[in-house]
Amino acid sequence: MSPILSLMRIRFLCLGMTLGYIFAQVPLWSAENMEQAWEIAIRESRQLQANRSTRAAADSGVMAAQSARMPKVVNATAYTVLSERPEYVAHTPGMNLGPIQVPSMEINVPVLDKDFWVSSTQAILPLYTGGKISSLVEQAEAQSRAAASGEITSLQNLKMNVAENYLLVLRIQGLVEVLQDSQKAIAAHEKNVQNMFKAGLVTKNVLLAAQVAKADIDQKVLQASNHLQVAEAAYNRFLWRPLTAAVELELMPIPPLSGELENLTDLAMTHRAELNILAAESQAIWSKSKEYRSERLPNIAALGGYTYVQNESLNNEDYWSASVAMIWTPIDGGVSRSKQRAAEHQATALNKIHDDTRSMIELEVRKNWLEEQESRERVEVTKKAIERSEENLRVVNHQFQVGLVTHTEVLDAVALYTQARTNYCNAAYDAILATYRLRRATGML
């Protein structure tokens, strides 16, 4: 082997090793699937981040309400300056002690200093609050449950929105592909008509009709391409990407049917977070009514304290104390009773809304279940229509070549084939979308 060939072989070997190393370091590209889209959307969603903060705030509210049962220590300290020094004035009557005459006297005894410090520290333990603390804890716990259910609702809504936009992109991509195939078929027909016109086999109006048909399909392709760009931008928005980012999605098969309607309805009544939110809000308001009722009941607390009074006139400046205190407002002019009745009416209203929501959810499940059934049947029908329209187009094209049919029948055959494929594309993605909507309706998305 010549030295030149040996050198070239070494260079090609080095190049191959380098390219192999590069491809080994770079992961193979793959289209994005639905699970990956959900993962990104959940991670980036500002709405979910807000829901998590709301839930954390509600959990902190529970801790605050529970802490109301614990003792609390309160300190009050003040430095006071008086305009004059307080004194106690004592008068002694005059006395006659024989040869000694004692006149009446006025004695000023200091009570407080002109300026002094007072500091009092109290430890307060609630003994009985008429159920107020219990009702506050119940309200906080109900609000925490409502916040948790609200987070689930936002999560399911987000996943549904991503799924709808994901499937919309795939649907429009499929429709663009159908139109582009029709565009190729009509372009081929136009070229064939041009050749026949040059050969004098057809009149000019036939050529003009073919050209109009080509312009019409070109316009439809442009419109569909624009719709695709809009759908891709909407999809990117849910994933917090630049609106112009490239979108490559994995195709999805049609999932199996979801099951019996009765089982799906029962599943929805158990798992729909919207019902849990209404139930929790109703519970919170009932607990609020108990809080208003507690305002008419006694509140009893044990107090232990230490007080320091800066006063040189006192024999002791430090004082310890222990007491049991009660605050009771048996009559408040009907304020607490009115607030209690208002809360009870609000709770009743929420219970009615809860019942109405159950009915709407039941209707939603039934609607999506019927759409799932109907879309599966449409898929089978449109499959057969594609086979027949494809065969019809092949036959008409052959007949046109031998002069048995007019160009109008060719365009009609192309239109039928295009419509059949369009119907199948819509039926297929309607079937997938119906299943996802049914999962959302049952709260299992």
Detail the topology: elements first, then pairings.
Blueprint: H1 3-25, H2 34-44, H3 46-67, E1 72-81, E2 87-92, E3 95-97, E4 100-102, E5 105-110, E6 115-128, H4 132-198, H5 204-238, H6 261-271, H7 273-294, E7 299-309, E8 318-327, H8 335-401, H9 407-442
Précis, in short:
The protein is an alpha+beta fold and 445 residues long. It contains nine helices and eight strands. Helices cover 66% and strands 14% of the residues.
Task: Describe the protein's architecture and organization.
- With 445 residues, the protein is α+β, with helices and mostly antiparallel strands.
- The protein contains nine helices and eight strands.
- The strands form three sheets. It has a four-stranded antiparallel beta sheet, with no helix packed on it. A two-stranded antiparallel ribbon has the order 2-5. A two-stranded antiparallel sheet has the order 3-4.
What is the distance, rounded to the nearest whole angstrom, between the alpha carbons of the first and last residues? Answer: 68 Å
Q: Over the alpha carbons, how many angstroms does the gyration radius reach?
A: 43 Å
Overall strand count = 8
Largest sheet: 4 strands, antiparallel
Percent helix among the residues? Answer: 55-70%
Helix/strand-derived category reads alpha+beta
| pLDDT < 50 stretches | 1-29
Percent of residues in beta strands:
5-15%
Helical segment count: 9
Enumerate the strands of the largest sheet in spatial order, edge to edge or round the barrel. 1-6-7-8
Mean pLDDT over the residues: 87
- Oligomer state of the chains in this structure: single chain
> How are helices and strands ordered from N to C?
HHHEEEEEEHHHHEEHH
Q: Which term fits the overall shape?
A: rod-shaped
